[in-house]
Design a protein that fits this description.
This protein is mainly alpha-helical. It folds into 2 domains: 12-18 and 33-259 and 359-456, Serine Threonine Protein Phosphatase 5, Tetratricopeptide repeat (Alpha Horseshoe); 283-358, no CATH class. Helix content is 44%, strand content 6%. It has 18 helices and 10 strands. The protein has a two-stranded antiparallel ribbon with strand order 1-5. A hairpin with a 5-residue loop joins strand 7 (322-323) and strand 8. Helix 8 runs antiparallel to helix 9. The longest helix has 26 residues, at 129-154.
């Protein structure tokens, strides 16, 4: 979708804003909405607006990695002053008004709102039946992706499945437990997978596919403990959807390698347009000039140590030393000399304007989730060893020290470092509290419901610990 218009066609009537001081689940527009949603092209533009939400600072551009990667044991942010708003999240010292968390909530519900409008209106539109089904599938998948992030982060959340047309409707919403959210997502993703194509090409490259819906579905099955259903879905992805591991781990990364054989779903970014680039390249990449404050998302030394000697993923994931503007050498033992290079090795000239996509799902995750679903045995170790072989490492088996869960979680940590999977993995494996306490922290497993929501909606209840 690079150099295509799919994410650029955003009409004023689809640029929803949060003018009210509560979760805005209804469109606010100068355009007469009644005159829109008349043609297939109208609906396609509306679905494009859902995709555009993924660019928000409250989604993949910032809040998601702060809340799901920085929150974990993989990295930290050595921030003071204004940057403290992020570092407190790493330290589990945030409180309900935290702006990063509020953005994550707002942007996710903005995506939900945009999807709900499409799903509420599309049946009345006279358009090609095949296109209608595909766009429904995309809206269902994207809404499910937003809700998955909300459920992992906040647990008890409002589950809104239709267009909200008034302030009163929005204020009448109630929280439901994450289990109810996941149950709904299972239904929606089964429907989405049936409606979506196996592959997209040309101008549609980057849109959701059957594989994207199925991968999220399998992840949710594992989250709720239904390993049998997860296994069925994962075997279908492997046998029917045509993905394969790229030969070299380093070839997963960079603009030239986007939409490779391993990629299942990516969030599209494009630099040079002023508002379509990403900011996480700056947050993750090489040190800023010494005159600029704010070295950012710093890998923990414990993460560096997790890579075995000879692991080819290390050099494709991390850089660990540099010489500054004054000629002073910084080694990996200092906090300002470690960063990830998965998302680019240089800061773009204008911050927030990098072209690198964010890979949300890739085939290696499917293989390791299948190992998780079927449990310890010859086949599961074979799946893990496919991943290890690409990394230049030898096989492991039942005789390798550690439990099966420990070995699998370790493999996931080094394979997916800085890909927003670690915190959800720690939660799913039931070890988040133990791992973070071993790092000297006192963890909350759920984020605080934003204080603004509690102030406006008396039905909402704060999560424990806040």
């Amino acid at each position: 979708m690079k150099n295509k218009s799919i994410f650029l066609i955003l009409l004023t009537g689809l640029l929803f804003s949060c003018k009210n001081s509560f979760t805005d689940l209804s469109p606010i527009s100068q355009r007469n909405v009644a005159d829109f949603y008349k043609t297939g092209s109208d609906v396609e533009v509306a679905v494009n607006a859902i995709y555009s939400t993924l660019h928000e600072n409250g989604c993949y551009n910032e809040s998601y990695w702060v809340m799901q990667e920085l929150r974990s044991d993989n990295s930290f942010w050595d921030g003071t002053g204004l940057a403290r708003i992020i570092s407190v999240i790493d330290d589990f010292e945030e409180f309900a008004p935290n702006e990063i968390i509020l953005r994550g909530w707002n942007a996710s519900y903005l995506g939900v709102s945009r999807a709900n409008i499409v799903l509420s209106r599309i049946d009345a539109v006279d358009m090609d039946a095949g296109l209608k089904d595909r766009l429904k599938g995309e809206a269902l998948f994207l809404r499910s992706l937003f809700y998955y992030h909300l459920a992992v982060a906040f647990g008890n959340i409002p589950l809104v499945l239709k267009e909200v047309l008034s302030v009163e409707e929005g204020l009448d919403e109630r929280q439901v437990p994450a289990s109810m959210v996941y149950a709904q997502l299972v239904t929606d993703l089964i429907d989405a997978e049936n409606k979506l194509p196996i592959r997209n090409t040309g101008a549609d490259l980057g849109r959701a596919t059957k594989g994207a819906a199925a991968t999220l579905l399998a992840k949710i099955y594992l989250t709720i403990g239904d390993k049998g259903s997860a296994e069925t879905v994962l075997r279908r992805i492997i046998s029917s959807y045509g993905y394969s591991l790229v030969d070299n781990y380093e070839d997963l990364w960079g603009v030239a390698n986007e939409h490779n054989s391993e990629s299942i779903f990516e969030v599209e970014f494009q630099g040079g347009l002023g508002n379509q680039g990403n900011r996480f390249t700056n947050d993750f990449s090489a040190p800023l000039p010494t005159s600029v404050s704010g070295f950012r998302n710093i890998p923990e030394l414990d993460l560096l140590a997790a890579f075995e000697p000879g692991d080819l993923r290390f050099a494709a994931t991390l850089d660990t030393a540099y010489t500054d503007d004054s000629g002073n050498f910084h080694s990996s033992s200092t906090d300002d000399s470690r960063w990830t290079i998965k998302y680019g090795t240089e800061n773009p000239f204008n911050e927030g304007d990098a072209p690198n996509n964010w890979i949300v799902f890739r085939y290696a995750d499917v293989l390791l989730m299948l190992a998780e679903a079927i449990g310890e045995g010859t086949e599961a170790y074979g799946l893990i060893n496919q991943i290890r072989a690409r990394a230049g490492l030898g096989d492991i088996d039942a005789s390798t020290p550690g439990t099966f869960a420990e070995k699998l979680l370790h493999e996931r940590r080094v394979e997916f470092a800085f890909e927003n999977l670690r915190w959800a993995d720690l939660l799913r494996f039931g070890v988040a509290d133990e791992v973070m306490r071993n790092q000297g922290k006192n963890p909350n497993l759920l984020f605080a419901i934003p204080q603004r929501e509690l102030d406006i909606n008396s039905n909402f209840v704060q999560n424990p610990g806040y």
